[in-house]
Amino acid sequence: MPSPTPPINQVILTGEVTDEPVTRYLAPEYPEVRLRLRTTEILQQRIEGKTHTQSYWHRVVLRGEAGMFVERHVHAGDTISVAGRIEYATEVDRTGQVTHLTEIICQHVQLQHKAEHSTTTKPTSNTQGKTPSTAEVNYSDYAAPPDEDPLA
User: Fold this and answer.
1) Which helix (H) or strand (E) holds 90?
2) What are the Cα distances from residue 45, in Å, to 50, 51, 53, 56?
3) Residue 140 backbone phi and psi in degrees, to 5
4) Strands 51-63 vs 98-113: parallel, antiparallel or unpaired
5) How sure is the predictor about 4, in pLDDT bands with cuts at 50, 70 and 90?
6) Long-range contacts of residues 15-20, Cβ cutoff 8 Å, at least 24 apart
7) Taking the chain, what is the end-to-end CA distance rounded to the nearest angstrom?
């Protein structure tokens, strides 16, 4: 009898970036980019056959090379695909309010479609839809501002 498949924490999402990604640096040349991704699902009623669109919003965190790619090429309105894992966290604010979070920690990102209103430069053929390799990245472009606290 074959062994059962081990449990795995893996998620793949394709959706629209709803807000401009927010970047902060955890270390020099190591960004953490956070964004909101909206996915939609078309549901059909059993009895009448009417369709209904359901939207879901996901918190996505990208670090390292994936974060650098998003910081440079992805903006609100663009469609991307992400692959990563689900992570659960609890935050306590200064007033003691507890918030439970569910985030997608992304290891891979692919640009599917640029929004028409986006005014950024188009990716070159080497980086089109893929995370750039280390040789193609100019790390001086990602230096943290001098007033940014990486531990804040």
Assistant:
1) strand 79-92
2) 5, 6, 11, 19
3) -65, -20
4) parallel
5) confident
6) 15/39, 15/40, 15/58, 15/79, 15/80, 16/77, 16/78, 16/79, 17/74, 17/75, 17/76, 17/77, 17/78, 17/79, 17/80, 18/57, 18/76, 19/76, 20/75, 20/76
7) 52
**pTM of the shown model:** 0.68
Residue labelled with tokens 């609890």:
90
* 92 C-beta neighbours (distance < 10 Å), count: 9
Q: Is 13 or 127 the better-scoring residue by pLDDT?
A: 13
Q: How confident is the model at residue 140 (pLDDT cuts 50, 70, 90)?
A: low
Amino acid at 70: V
Cα separation, 61 vs 104, in Å, equals 6
